[in-house]
Write a structure and sequence with these properties.
single chain, 308 residues, alpha/beta, 9 helices, 26% strand
Length: 308
C-alpha cells in the first residue's frame, strides 16, 4: 500500500501545488488503484507518474467543491481511451451522480466500461475479503466526508520447519494446508493451519479526510490508525479564519493525531499563501505537538508499512 499525492493545494492551483487528488496504490494487495478526489489537472499530474488509469477500481470524492471534482469527468472519459475496461465505482456525497451524468451527457461522452456511482451516507460503504471502507461525516458547510480504510488481518506465514517436523515435505500440499483451516493427510492425520503458521499479519488502517473544521470528537474513531491524512489549510495562529472557512490549522490536525494515537500524520490541502520556508514553519509547528508528521507535496509517495 502506497499513498501517491498528485495535488496537495487548496482552492486554486499554484506553481508549487495542484488542487486535490490522492491515489492509493495497492498493486501487490489487489492489483488496483483507488483515487481520492479528482481536482482539475489530475490527468496531467498522472502523466508525470507510473500510475495507470486502467487500474483504477474506485474513486472516492470527499465533497463537491470544484477543486476536488473538476478533473473527474475528464479522467473518466480518458480512461476509456487508455485501455480501461474493468468497472469503476465512484463514491461521494449527494449530487455527485447528477454532476457526472450531466457532464458526460452534455459532452457526448460514452464510456467503454461499466460506471457505478454510489452516493454515500455516514457508515459502512463496502466490505470484501481484504478491506472494510467506512465514511465519516465532517464539517465543511458543504457536505464533506472522510474515508476510513481498514485492511483485514492476513494469515501468518506458513512455517516449513513445523511441517517438516511432521514429516511433510515441500510441495503443492503446503499451499493446500495454508488455504484451509484444517487438512487431512493421506495417512489420516489432521493438520490444523494455526499449528503450522506464524502470527497473523495485522491489517493496516488509513484515514483520508476531506476538507473540514477540526473535529476533536473524531479521536476515538481514529484510535490507533496507522496513517491519518488531514487537511491543514492554515497556520496555527489562524484558528479563527480556519473556523470561518470550515478548515483546520496545522496545530489542530497535529493535536487530533496525538489524541487519537495514530502512528503517522500527513498534512494535506496547504494554502498557496505558504511557500518555501513558510511550509517548513508549518511542519515545525505540527511536530512540536506530534513529531511523526509529514507535509505532503505534489508527487510525494508514502509507503504504508506493517509496523506492528
Amino acid at each position: 500500500m502506497e499513498l501517491f499525492f498528485l495535488g496537495t493545494g487548496s482552492g486554486v492551483p499554484s506553481k508549487e501545488r495542484n488542487v486535490s487528488s490522492l491515489v492509493l496504490r495497492m498493486l501487490e494487495e489487489r492489483g488496483t488503484t483507488w483515487v481520492f478526489d479528482c481536482g482539475e489537472g489530475t490527468q496531467q499530474q498522472i502523466l508525470n507518474t507510473t500510475i495507470r488509469p486502467r487500474r483504477i477500481e474506485a474513486i472516492f470524492i470527499t465533497h463537491l467543491h470544484g477543486d476536488h471534482i473538476y478533473g473527474l469527468p475528464g479522467l473518466l472519459s480518458s480512461r476509456s481511451f487508455q485501455g480501461g475496461e474493468s468497472p469503476v465505482t465512484v463514491y461521494g456525497p449527494r449530487g455527485l451522480k447528477e454532476y457526472i451524468d450531466i457532464s458526460l451527457r452534455l459532452s457526448g461522452t460514452h464510456l467503454r466500461y461499466p460506471l457505478y456511482v454510489e452516493e454515500v451516507e455516514e457508515g459502512l460503504l463496502f466490505e470484501d475479503k481484504q478491506f472494510i471502507v467506512e465514511a465519516v461525516r465532517l464539517e465543511h458547510g458543504l457536505e464533506s466526508f472522510g474515508y476510513l480504510l481498514k485492511e483485514k488481518d492476513q494469515l501468518g506465514e506458513l512455517l516449513p520447519s513445523k511441517l517438516q517436523e511432521l514429516g511433510i515435505q515441500p510441495g503443492p500440499l503446503y499451499q493446500q494446508i495454508k488455504s484451509r483451516p484444517e487438512t487431512e493427510l493421506e495417512d489420516g492425520r489432521i493438520i490444523q493451519r494455526n499449528d503450522v503458521t506464524g502470527p497473523p499479519k495485522k491489517g493496516r488502517k488509513v484515514a483520508i479526510l476531506g476538507d473540514t473544521r477540526c473535529l476533536p470528537e473524531l479521536a476515538g474513531t481514529l484510535k490507533d490508525f496507522d496513517v491519518l491524512v488531514h487537511e491543514a489549510t492554515f497556520a496555527g495562529d489562524q484558528e479563527e479564519m480556519a473556523f470561518n472557512y470550515f478548515h483546520s490549522t496545522v496545530k489542530q490536525a497535529a493535536s487530533l493525531a496525538k489524541e487519537a494515537g495514530v502512528r503517522e500524520l500527513i498534512l494535506n490541502h496547504i494554502s498557496s499563501r505558504y511557500q518555501g520556508k513558510a511550509v517548513q514553519q508549518l511542519l515545525d509547528e505540527a511536530r512540536e505537538i506530534f513529531p511523526n508528521t509529514t507535509i505532503s507535496k505534489d508527487f510525494y509517495q508514502h509507503y504504508i508499512s506493517r509496523n506492528h
